[in-house]
Amino acid sequence: MVETFQNLLLGFSVALQPSILVYAFVGCLIGTLVGMMPGLGPLAGISLLLPATFGLNPIIAIVLLAGVYYGAMYGGSTTSILLRIPGEAASVMTCVDGYAMTLNGRAGPALAIAAIGSFIAGTLGVIGLMLLAPTLAAWALRFGPPEYTALLMMGLFILAYMSGGSMLKTLAMATLGLLLGMIGIDVMSGYTRFNFGVVELGDGVGIVPVAVGLFGVSEILLAAGGTVAPKVQRPKLRDLIPSREEFRLSVGPIGRGSLLGFLIGIIPGSAHIISSFVSYGIERRLAKDPGRFGKGAIEGVAGPESANNAAASGAFVPMMALGIPTSPVTAVMIAAIMVHGILPGPLLIQQQPELFWGFVASMYVGNVVLLILNLPMVGVFVNLLRIPYSYLYPCILCFCILGTYSVSNSLIDVWILLAMGAIGYVLRKFGYDLAPVALGLVLAPMLELSLRQSLAMSAGDYGIFVQRPIAAVMFALGAILFLFAIKPLVFKGKDWRSTVGLENE
Amino acid sequence: MTESPSSGARGLRSDQFSGLMLLALALYVAWENRAYPVGTLQEPGPGYMPLLLVIFLGAIGLLIALWGARSRPLAAVKWTEATRAVVILVACGFAALALERIGYRLTVIALLVFLLGVLERKRPLPVALVALGFGFASFYVVGDLLHVPLPRSPWGF
C-alpha cells in the first residue's frame, strides 16, 4: 500500500505539470462536446483526435485521449436529460428518467446528480484501477502464448454472454471482426491474405477507419434526415441544486452503479453501455415504488450515469495490465500508445511507471475538471445543441474523413471508412451490435499468433491448453459462460438480458 | 427485433435475410481462402484460422436464419433515409477521389457546398461561410498547428 501511494505521488508529480493539466482540460472539454453531439461518440472523437497525438509525448497523448473518453461519458448525459437524445449509447437509459425530470421542471437536479454521480464513480473507478492493474500485471507476467490464447477465447465467450442484444448476432459480429483482422500479412508464414491486389492492405485493416466508419459515419447516415434544431432548456446555476430527498435517494444508486460499472468495465464488450442498462434494471428492482421509474425517478439517472463512468475506468485495467483491449475505445487507445513505441502489457507498469501513474493521477484531475466544466458551464454547452443537425453532420463527416486520412495519409483508409459506414448502416438496420466487430479486428492477430505459437511450443499437441493450470481454468470459465449463453437458445426461458430490459432473442 | 409470429405476413424475415447474407459471406471468404495453405491441426498454415472463422460464421449465420422466424418481416425494415444516405456516401466517394488531386481545402469546401447547398438546400451565404470557414480553419488547426501533413492542390493551395 505504501508503495502504491509513493507511485501515486510520482503520478501526481507528472499529472500536475502545467502542460499535462492543459491537455487533460482540453481532452475533457473536447470529450464533453463530443459526448453531447449525436453521431460523435467517444470512439469517433478519440479516433479523430488520434493523428493529432502523434507529435505529442506518450503521456500527454494518453491523458488527452482518456480525457475525451470519460469527458464523453459526462457530456452524453446532458443531451439525454435535456432533449431525450442520447449523445452516446451509454446514455440511453438516462433519457428515460432524466428527460421525465426535465418535463417535471427538475432538469437542474438531474444534471447535477448525473455530474456528481459521474464524479464519484469516476474517482472510485480510478482507485480500483490503481489497486487492481499493478496486481493483475504482476500476475500476468506468468502468461505465455497458451495463457493468452485462453484469455482471448475467454474474453470472446464473456463478450457473447454479456452482449446487450442477441447472443448469436454478437458472435457473428465478433467473427466478422476476427475475419477482418485476417486481412494482411500473416506474420508466421509471410503470406499476404485477402488483399485483393491492394498493396496497402498488406498492413491489414486499421482500427481507426473501421471504428469511425462503423460508429461515426453509420450514425450520420441513419440520422441525416433531421433538420430542425430542438428547443433546449438552459438551466441556471441556482436551479442545479438537488433537494435533500433527491440526494438521499441517489446515494445508494451511485454506490451500486460505481461498483457494478467498474466490474462490468473490466470484461470485454460494450461495457459502458451494458453497465448502464444493468444498473437501471437493478435500481428499478430495488426501488420501493418501481412505478416511479420512467416518470422522473432520480435513481434512474444516478445509477446508470455512475455505472457508465465507472465502466470507463474499469476498461483501462485489462488495457494497462494485460495489453488487451476490452472495448473499441481502448483498442484505439492502445494503437495511440503503440505509435510511440510503447507496448501496453504486464511490463508497462514496471518499465514506464511515469506513464501509468501519470495517467492514473491525471484521471483524478480529469474528474475534478469535468465536475467543474459540467455543472456551472452546462448553460454554455447546451448552446451547441441549438446548431441544426443539417449544418452539423456535414462538418462531422469532414472530420471523419480528415481524421481517418491523417492517421497514415492513406486514401485506402478513407475508402475503408466509407465502406464500413455503409456496412454499419445496413447492420444497424438489422439490429446488429457493432462493437464486437471492432473488438474482433483488434483481437484477431493476437489470437492467431498466440494459438500458433502455443502449438509450435507443444509440437502440435493441443493438450498444452489443459496442462497449464491458468490456461485450463480460463478455458473452463469460458466454456461454462458459453454454455450459460446458449442455454436460453436451447431451453426456452429468460436470461439476464430480459430481466434488465435489454433485447433478447 | 422479435415480434409475434402472427403479426406479419408470410415471407422472408429480417433475421432470416441477414443470417443468409452472413452465410453467403462465409461461403465467399471460404472460396477466397482456397489460395492459402490450411496446414494441419498440429501445424496450422495461413489459411487455417480464416477457415475456422468462416465455418463458425457460416454456422452462426445459419442459426440466425433458422431462429429468425420470429423476427420482424423483411418488408418492415424501413429505408426512409436510404436515398439520402447513398447520396452522402457517393459525395464522400467523390471527395476521396479528389482529396489528393485538388488538395484538402478545395475538396472539403466542395463537399460542404454540395451537402449543405444541394442536399440540405441551405441559403448560399451560410453555405459559403460554413464551407470556407470549416475548410480553412480545419486546415489551419490540423495542418499548420498540429503539423499533420494534409494534401495540397497542384497549385500549392
Question: What features would you highlight for this structure?
Answer:
heterodimer, A: about 500 residues, mainly alpha, two-stranded antiparallel sheet, 23 helices, about 70% helix, globular, B: about 160 residues, 2 domains
Could you write a compact summary of the structure shown?
The complex is a heterodimer of chains A (505) and B (157). Chain A is mainly alpha-helical.
Question: Could you characterize the architecture of this molecule?
Answer:
- The complex is a heterodimer of chains A (505) and B (157).
- Helix content of chain A is 71%, strand content 1%.
- In chain A, strand 1 (184-185) and strand 2 form a beta hairpin.
- Chain A has 23 helices and two strands.
- By secondary structure, chain A is an all-alpha fold.
- The model of chain A has no long low-confidence stretch (mean pLDDT 82).
- In chain A, helix 4 packs parallel to helix 16 and helix 10 crosses helix 11.
- Chain A has one domain (2-499).
- Chain B has two domains: 5-76; 82-145, no CATH class.
- Helix content of chain B is 62%, strand content 0%.
- Residues 1-9 of chain B have low confidence and may be disordered.
- Chains A and B meet through helix 8, helix 9, helix 18, helix 19 and helix 20 of A and helix 1, helix 2, helix 3, helix 4 and helix 5 of B.
